[in-house]
# Entry
Amino acid sequence: MRIGGKDTEGIDSRWIEVKNPATGELVDRVPAGTKEDVSCAVEAADAAFCLWAKKSMRDRGMILFHAAEIVRDQHKDLARLLTLEQGKPIRESIDEVRGYANVLEFYAGISAWQKGESVRLGTSGDCIIVHQPLGVCGAIIPWNMPVLIMGWKICPALLAGNTMVLKPASSTPLTNLRLGQILDDAGLPKGVLNIVTGSGDSAGTAIVKHPAVRKLSFTGDCTTGSKIREMAGAHLKDLTLELGGSDPMIVMPDAAIDRAVEGALRGRFYNAGQTCTAVKRLYVHEKISDQFIQKLKERIDTLTVGNGLGSRIDMGPMNSAQQRERISQMVEETRENKEGTILSGGSTMKGTAYEHGHFYRPTLVSNVAPDSRLVTSEIFGPVLPVMTVPDLDCAIREANNTRYSLGASIWTKDLTTAKRVFDEVRAGIIWVNRHLTVPPEVPFGGMNDSGIGRENGQHALDSYTQTKTLFLGW
Ligand code: NAD
# Structure
């Protein structure tokens, strides 16, 4: 872990092993952080706050900019490390590392044009409204996109003048630690960003409960988010929660079919399906569904699954045995209850190349019953349920028939259809003829059980500040 600008082994001398999900081999080990380690990290962050908050936003932005330069320089090594601990194909790791550099650069860029506000009150006076940082903030992140999500949290928080304690997921802490070191090398003062490795129950809970942590930004499972909200409520902490999703993709008869097939393929199987905004439910209009499903199945059957470090790999392993087991059980349940027809995949990968990794075959299931767990739960893995719908009304109704509302996409050439989906489907982002892309410039987050608050864009920067008013009486 990194506390006060130094690598430390932690107080307890216990370790967490980080294993390669493709081979089961040990990649490295990190300290299992405790409540005491979190206290040290919060103290370091608190001590660094006063000077960091006094720097101009432009100076803080320049450090993010320098860090982006180093990240771009080292992107190949960083991507390799990410694949070793997370499993995704190296191409996707490179995308993610570059995406992280984009986030650093976006916030460095907007630091130059931050404006203040003032209100004139006639003869009684004038008011100046400033946006001040909150203090020490906590960030808790998952294993699926550990690099990008680290950027979404630390960039707006640090740029706004806060200091931070970040906890990576237990299975993917290594690239996060390396990125912490890079920020320090770029000129971040000691203690501004501290990284405590460890489990959710120990280090995670300690961050949530620490009274000096004023805001928490959490990305992860809905159940964990709900627990965190309850714990944070005791100290009235500010919260951003980015939780699960079950994004629908709707394909209309006028859509560009081949483009939509590729959209569904990437939307579902990117990162072995372990993406919050992945296509998790596919609704295809009955006029084109036979043709569409046939084409999609053919494409799925061409995907090459293997160790993410290999060449021409389309999909890597899942991140853990536990995640693979969860997905496997859902598919078995569907098969046993005859709740759908498995057209492709539907089992773990067989053969010596796969025996020590958490590989699952890219899976396509058609005619899925509306009450099947494949439709009602979040499927965080490479399994795509596809349903045929008679019209747009039905597609919109089914799309909204969920507790989640993170993203959704509509594939059509007709603007009126797209506008209807935008107006009527509940989600934080609606894509037209696209799915999955989340640029740092625009707010991102969910409605309903998918979360509270927004990351990215100016919105995230504002969420790490509180306003204070100066009243000048004349
Ligand atoms: P998780 O909730 O199990 O873990 C996320 C993080 O929380 C980890 O660092 C974990 O150690 C920590 N944690 C666990 N229990 C905790 C506790 N009691 N107190 C404090 N911290 C605790 O989630 P996961 O399995 O790592 O991630 C997958 C989930 O994340 C999926 O549901 C996915 O949709 C969601 N996700 C959402 C977004 C988004 O932006 N909306 C992005 C990526 C992932």
Observations:
- The radius of gyration is 23 Å.
- DSSP finds 15 helices and 22 strands in the chain.
- Residues 140-145, 167, 169-170, 199-201, 204-205, 208, 219-221, 224, 227-228, 242-245, 276, 378, 380, 406, 446, 451 surround nicotinamide-adenine-dinucleotide (CB under 6 Å).
